[in-house]
Amino acid sequence: MERVEKQLWAQMKEMCSRGEPAVSQREPHMQQEEERTQVKRSYVVVVRGKGLKEGKDVQSKLERVEKGMGFKVKGVRNMKEGRVLVELADEAERKRMLEDRRLREAGLRVEKPKTFPPLVLIRAVPKGMNDDELLDEVYVRNLKEEVDAEEMERTMRVKFRIGARSREKEGVLLEVLPRIRQALLGTGSAARIYIGMRVLYFVETFERVTRCFSCYGFNHRAIECKRGKLCSRCCKKGHLAGDCHESEECGNCRERKRECRHSVLSRTCPEMLLRLGRWKERVQE
Predict the structure, then answer these.
(1) What is the pLDDT of residues 85-96, one digit of tens each?
(2) pLDDT tens digits for 204-224?
């Protein structure tokens, strides 16, 4: 693992252990690009083909069947388990594809991507507190007046824990219902809740994008990477960050011909913000 990657994970673990909120430092030369990326939405559907197990076969059939229908398609990407992700120009085009009976008659099933429950992160939880104790504290001291106990037990669970092993506290990620998130956070993305008798704990919305720490791309992990190890400074092959003499560049933005004079691990990277925007669209509200 490279030095930059180690520093990134160490910083995240330290912040979770201390209970500090994450604060992004804005990079001036990226401000305009960031603002454009934040407001950009994507309109996607997932297409499956009856009896087809490979995404490339589904895509081939879709291209044959779709001729003459005139959908405004911005991009197509093969996915696992015989699925194809289709990005359309706007909501009207997505609705038209979802409702087109000709696709169904041809054996193609078109649907919106599945949504999933919101995630919230509670920082600086003592490591000695187990899952049941934590959930009970969160409910009794913060949710009892608004949420039924049976509903809480059925719908709220600990997803996983993060934090430095050397510290006595860690961050705990909870999967919750949208209205429980609303009760915990109010109208913002972060708040403080009561746990125990002495401390106010920081809780915030948790946002996650799957990415690879080998090539620093998205939608796959390092164990699945086919591109190979890239330098985390310039995103080129043949050396690591400690031996890099190139200018710092983000390989993801460079491939898409965007402003790329920033770290590939930057929290204000336009490509990262775009991926986060797509992730947010799939969170249940």
Answers:
(1) 998 999 999 999
(2) 888 878 889 899 999 888 999
Residue found under tokens 């209205």: 179
Pairing verdict, β 73-79 and 83-88: antiparallel
For 277, the token pair is 């925007």
Range of the domain at 87: 43-111
**pTM for the whole thing?**
0.63
Same domain, 74 and 130: no
> In the listed set 84, 111, 138, which residue is the last one of a domain according to the structure?
111
Whether 213 is covered by a domain: the verdict is no
In whole angstroms, give the CA distance from residue 178 to residue 172.
18
Phi-psi region of 68 (alpha: psi -120 to 50; beta: other; left: phi over 0): left
CA nearest to 34, candidates 281, 250, 258: 258
Residue with tokens 């407001």: 39
How far CA 221 is from CA of 55, 120, 127, 161, 281, in Å, comes to 19, 23, 28, 19, 22
Contact 37, 270 (CB under 8 A): yes
- The beta-carbon contacts of 231-238 under 8 Å, at least 24 apart in sequence, are 231/2, 232/2, 232/4, 232/5, 232/263, 232/264, 232/265, 233/4, 233/263, 235/264
> How does strand 119-126 pair with strand 199-205?
antiparallel
Count of domains forming the chain: 3
